[in-house]
Every structure is written in C-alpha cells, then in structure tokens.
C-alpha cells in the first residue's frame, strides 16, 4: 500500500482541476453568493452563543449622537478715546 501523499491525492487534484476548468465561473458565482449569505448570517447574530435559560428578548446597543454647538463668541466693543489713554 502506497501512502505517499502526492500519489494518494492525485485523483482528487485531477477532479478539482477538471471541475474548475469546466465549471469555474459557476463555482465562483456560487462561492460569492454563499459568502454574501454567510456575512449576512454573521452580522445578524448567527455566531452569538445562546444559553438555554436565557430569555428570547433582544436588547440592542443604542448609539446616540448629540450635535455639539460651539460656545458663543461674545464681542465687546471698547471705545478708546484720547482722554482714556493718558
């Protein structure tokens, strides 16, 4: 029995090479759509661990953005006449 990895996996590599050569575009499109669905599942909470005694209610994290207004600029006019400068 030959357990050489190169010879043992040669039929698998030949099959993959033929499948990619014949159906490469379709395999690419399939993998793209699967990755989009997997990303949507992950972002919707698919990887979150669920405990059996936990309630089904959902609590979200809210982000509140309050606009910050700059402090008002107060200008005071000073009338400096010649009499006050001496």
Distance between the termini: 113 Å
Q: Profile the largest sheet.
A: none
Strand portion, in percent? Answer: under 5%
Describe the global form: elongated
Low-confidence stretches: none
**Structural class, from secondary structure content?**
mainly alpha
Summed up, what is this model?
The protein has 86 residues and is an all-alpha fold.
Describe this entry's structure for a reader:
With 86 residues, this protein is mainly alpha-helical. It has a domain at 5-43. Helices cover 44% and strands 0% of the residues. It is built from two helices and no strands. The longest helix has 34 residues, at 10-43. The termini are far apart.
What is the topological layout?
Blueprint: H1 5-8, H2 10-43
Question: Key terms for this structure?
Answer:
86 residues, mainly alpha, 2 helices, elongated
